[in-house]
Structure formats: structure tokens, C-alpha cells
């Protein structure tokens, strides 16, 4: 599928899919959205020096992973991160992303490169406290049970991929979480909230990132 690198309103890059008229991140700001949805309303729930097992649904550009790595450094977190992606980006697409510059994280440019250069299906250390496993996998094929403390659910929207927002998928998410585990997503659709509740999540609506009124967070 054709991809085009774009700049979002906060100056950070994203990827636009013309065939779907869909972007990998909010056009209002890729970095702003990532911090608001996944850090402020997800990772912030875990105390400093905690060990956190995270699964990301839609590894994409690696932005959420890299931001989580940076936050793990600031908070002394031990993170075991699993990124799920059915269609990984090509090297030439990754090279056009400007996250290091926008995050003023030049001192961690080697770690950003390592996040993307590591082989898929192999667990590796980004540093002593951050382990990464990238899995080239369809979401419906996930079969982890009681593994994760936190899920970043960052799939393409239901308008273009409704099959990723079904009760079947959210049951897989629910089963993969430990007790009291958290799932956060940018979506605020009523249909998504209902299927999350149907599989057992305690769901709350929260203020959304710039450009969105609300988002959802569920607890097992």
C-alpha cells in the first residue's frame, strides 16, 4: 500500500495512507497524541521503579515504544515491551521520521535506531532496563494469557479496519492482561466501549488528546 510521510500539527511526522485516507497518528499531533493517550493515561498509573509488561497493538512507526523508552529512563522503570505489527515499515520510511529531533532526544539516537533494526521475533535489550520483542503477527493470532500490565491499543480506526475493533479482538486483549491490567486507546466510539464491557473490562471515558473530545481506558 502506498505511504506518504506527513507532518502533523505539533511538527512531528506520521504516515498517511492515501488509499484509505488514514494516518498512523492524529493529524493534530503525533507526539501529543502518544503522550496523552499512552503515557498520561496509561504508563503514569505505574509507580517509579516498577516493572511493567507492555503490549502495543500496532507497533507502526515505533513512536510509542520510543517515548516509553524515554519515560522508562526518567522514571527508573523496568519495561518488558512487546510490539505487535502485521505490516512492518521499510527502512527508507523509518529514516524519514523526525521523532529524535522533535523529542530533543539526540542522546538516545542509537537506541531509536536499535528499536527499528532489531530482528523480529527475537527478544533483545535496548538497555539494561528496557527489553523489546517485536512480533510480526495479526492481532487475531495473539494467544498470550495473563502476561501484560498495560496494553497500548493503537490499531487503525474502525472506519478502515472494523475487524480490529470486535468483541473477538478485545477478548484476546482481556485474556492477555494480568488482573488489574489496563488497556488504553484513542478511540471513544460507543461500539468499542460496549464490546470492551462485554468481555469484562471496567471502562471509563477520559478527556481525549488535541482534536478528540474523549478516549477510553479499560481495567481487567
Describe the sheet with the most strands: 8 strands, mixed
Average residue-wise pLDDT = 96
Helix content: 25-40%
The secondary-structure class comes to: alpha/beta
End-to-end Cα distance, whole Å, is 36 Å
> What is the number of domains?
1
Describe the global form: globular
- CATH fold description: Rossmann fold
Strand content: 25-35%
What's the β-strand tally? 11
Q: Tally the helices.
A: 7
Strand order across the largest sheet: 6-7-5-4-8-9-11-10
Q: Rg to the nearest angstrom? A: 16 Å
List keywords for this structure.
220 residues; 11 strands; 8-stranded mixed sheet; Rossmann fold; alpha/beta
Summary, kept brief:
By secondary structure, the chain is an alpha/beta fold. It contains 7 helices and 11 strands. Helix 1 crosses helix 2 (63-75).
What does this structure look like?
The chain is of the alpha/beta class. It is built from seven helices and eleven strands. An eight-stranded mixed β-sheet has the order 6-7-5-4-8-9-11-10, with helices on both faces. Helix 6 crosses helix 7. The radius of gyration is 16 Å and the shape is globular. The chain starts with a strand and ends with a strand.
Write the topology of this structure.
Elements: E1 4-7, E2 13-17, E3 22-23, H1 30-40, E4 51-57, H2 63-75, E5 78-85, H3 91-94, H4 99-102, H5 109-117, E6 124-127, E7 130-136, E8 148-153, H6 167-176, E9 177-185, H7 190-198, E10 202-207, E11 214-219
Parallel strand pairs: 4-5, 4-8, 5-7, 8-9
Antiparallel strand pairs: 1-2, 2-3, 6-7, 9-11, 10-11
Helix pairs in contact: 1-2, 6-7
Amino acid at each position: 500500500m502506498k505511504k506518504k510521510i506527513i507532518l502533523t500539527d505539533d511538527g512531528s511526522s506520521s504516515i498517511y495512507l492515501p488509499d484509505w485516507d488514514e494516518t498512523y497518528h492524529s493529524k493534530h499531533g503525533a507526539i501529543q497524541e502518544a503522550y496523552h493517550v499512552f503515557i498520561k493515561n496509561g504508563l503514569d498509573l505505574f509507580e517509579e521503579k516498577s516493572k511493567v509488561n507492555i503490549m502495543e497493538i500496532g507497533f507502526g512507526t515505533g513512536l510509542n515504544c520510543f517515548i516509553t523508552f524515554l519515560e522508562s529512563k526518567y522514571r527508573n522503570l523496568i519495561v518488558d515491551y512487546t510490539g505487535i505489527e502485521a505490516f512492518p515499515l521499510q527502512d527508507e520510511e523509518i529514516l524519514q521520521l523526525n521523532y529524535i529531533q522533535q523529542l530533543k532526544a539526540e542522546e538516545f539516537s542509537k537506541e531509536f535506531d536499535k528499536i527499528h533494526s532489531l530482528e523480529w521475533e527475537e527478544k533483545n535489550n535496548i538497555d539494561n532496563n528496557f527489553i523489546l520483542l517485536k512480533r510480526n503477527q495479526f492481532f487475531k493470532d495473539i494467544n498470550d494469557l495473563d502476561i501484560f500490565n498495560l496494553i497500548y491499543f493503537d490499531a487503525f480506526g474502525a472506519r478502515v479496519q472494523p475487524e480490529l475493533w470486535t468483541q473477538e479482538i478485545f477478548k484476546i486483549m482481556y485474556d492477555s492482561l494480568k488482573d488489574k491490567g489496563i488497556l488504553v486507546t484513542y478511540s471513544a466510539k460507543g461500539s468499542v466501549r460496549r464490546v470492551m464491557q462485554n468481555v469484562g473490562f471496567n471502562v471509563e471515558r477520559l478527556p481525549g488528546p488535541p482534536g478528540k473530545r474523549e478516549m477510553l481506558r479499560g481495567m481487567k
